[in-house]
Write a structure and sequence with these properties.
The protein is of the alpha+beta class. It is 34% helix and 24% strand.
């Protein structure tokens, strides 16, 4: 059978079952790493395709071809423990225009105290709260003149997105080979007392220059495109438009939990930001190594 662009033979499935039986205490994530390594299933950059392998293991399990250990959590119920910290809101608002201040500083979240701070402000000031970020990701704290003004997070792109996939024009096999070259802006927060005109679009423009290089440093490949979703019931997407992101259309109000899709009714606008020439982008994303 073919799953995620790769053929899985009877011997492959037997190898997977043996790997599971030989590692009875391993988590699903650990098993996906072990299996992808044994199958030598790798991305174009040489990294193991463990994320795709997790998907395959779930599908094989749903077909009763393998038996996975019980998952530790449901993907749509991922909460995170928020540590109470000594965070003091400024007594006065930060007001002005972008030109009134020095350039914003993007600080990659690296240590425990920075993670606690990021988690705290997202949980308390972002409407979606703080959830576990699965897979590759980078989180940022943003400062102006040593004052915290907000944060960003970028992570692996969504598996299937009709408007994006049609815009690229790739096949399923091409998507499987190159999906890692797209990353998703999963969180963007400007703290409520920061009232600086044009700041949001400025930060989005800066992120398009800063994040790809950081991603290359941490994950050994440079993304070629950014994507994001904007809830239409809350936001107009004006900042993304001002930063030259491309509007592709709207979602269908569906979400994903594991291998299952469900209707939640929340419509989101879809935006992308190519990091290279559009024709080169489409050509590269449609190549299979």
């Amino acid at each position: 059978m073919i799953i995620r662009g790769r053929e899985f033979t009877a011997s492959d499935i037997a190898l997977i079952n043996k790997t599971i039986s030989d590692n009875p205490t391993s988590s699903r994530r650990k098993l996906s790493l072990l299996v992808s390594e044994k199958l030598n299933w790798r991305q174009a950059n040489g990294n193991l395709k463990d994320r795709a392998c997790r998907d395959v293991l779930l599908r094989l399990s749903n077909k009763n071809l393998i038996k996975l250990p019980k998952g530790k959590y449901e993907l749509n119920k991922q909460s995170i423990s928020i540590t109470s910290i000594n965070f003091i809101q400024p007594l006065s608002d930060l007001v002005g225009t972008v030109s009134d201040f020095e350039p914003p500083l993007f600080k990659v979240v690296q240590n425990a105290s920075e993670r606690q701070l990021w988690n705290y402000i997202v949980e308390n000031y972002h409407y979606k709260g703080c959830k576990i970020t699965v897979g590759r990701h980078l989180k940022y704290l943003i400062y102006i003149a040593n004052q915290l003004i907000g944060c960003f997070a970028f992570a692996d792109s969504v598996l299937k997105l009709t408007a994006r996939d049609q815009w690229i024009g790739w096949t399923q096999a091409e998507r499987e080979a190159n999906l890692h070259l797209i990353i998703n802006n999963v969180r963007f927060l400007i703290l409520p007392w920061v009232k600086v005109k044009n700041l949001a679009s400025k930060l989005l423009s800066l992120s398009a220059r800063i994040v790809p290089s950081d991603w290359l440093y941490y994950y050994n490949f440079r993304p070629l495109m950014l994507e994001t979703f904007v809830e239409t019931r809350r936001f107009t997407g004006a900042s993304y438009k001002a930063a030259n992101w491309i509007y592709l259309g709207q979602t269908k109000g569906k979400g994903r939990s594991g291998m299952n899709y469900y209707y939640h009714g929340i419509i989101k606008d879809i935006y992308i930001y190519p990091l290279i020439n559009r024709s080169s982008l489409r050509r590269t994303l449609r190549m299979i190594p």
